[in-house]
Amino acid sequence: MNLLLQNIAKHISLTPEEEQLLISKIEIHSYKAKTLLSEPNSVSNHLYFVNSGILRSFSISDNIIEHVLHFACEGWWIGDMYSYLSRKPGFLFIEVIENAEVVVISKENQEYLYQNIPKLERFFRILAENSLVSHQERLMDNMSLSAEERFEKMCRKYPNLILRVPQKHLASYIGVTPEFFSKMKSRLLRK
């Protein structure tokens, strides 16, 4: 619980009473690797905050190729935001990659907390803004950087993830095949 409260405290201050109300409206679950928390074609009713472990969001194209959109490790949030916010069926799988302990907040409880702790709206707005900036940066990188440059940038930004996420998922995240990724990584290691 401390990690969640520390994450929130980076942007807003909660009173002890507000912290207790927040804690009463969330759930903590432990999940084994390979557990799916969300699947396409259903409405997403939850956001997830990672206390420990790693999750990923991804889609599968018509030709059965996985496209990793996002990873989340300790202290990060993840969810199918399109579905969660629009209340329409989503497009993403959310999968546990590494055994995880996750804080789960439902849409209903989030709305309740907004009514009773209005500053939480500010917190989640800041998260949404940061996410938008990050996704725009990634989109620009995908259009302007080579696969090697994207991988090197990822290594600099998220060194912890590189060591913990399977190579096939890293390859998908930077937009290359696992075979190309393996050759590219070998080339980079020889430099």
Fold and architecture overview:
This protein is 51% helix and 24% strand. By secondary structure, it is an alpha+beta fold. Strands 1, 2, 3, 4, 5 and 6 form a 6-stranded antiparallel beta sheet that branches. The longest helix has 26 residues, at 119-144.
Strand content: 15-25%
| SSE sequence, one letter per element | HHEEEEEHEHHHHHH
Structural class: alpha+beta
Helix content: 40-55%
Key terms for this structure?
191 residues; alpha+beta; six-stranded antiparallel β-sheet; 9 helices; 6 strands; globular
What is the fold's blueprint, element by element?
Layout lengths: L1 H8 L6 H9 L2 E5 L4 E3 L7 E15 L5 E7 L4 E2 L2 H6 L6 E14 H10 L2 H26 L2 H11 L1 H6 L2 H8 L3 H13 L1
Antiparallel strand pairs: 1-6, 2-6, 3-4, 3-5, 3-6
Summarize this structure briefly.
The chain is 51% helix and 24% strand. The chain is of the alpha+beta class and 191 residues long.
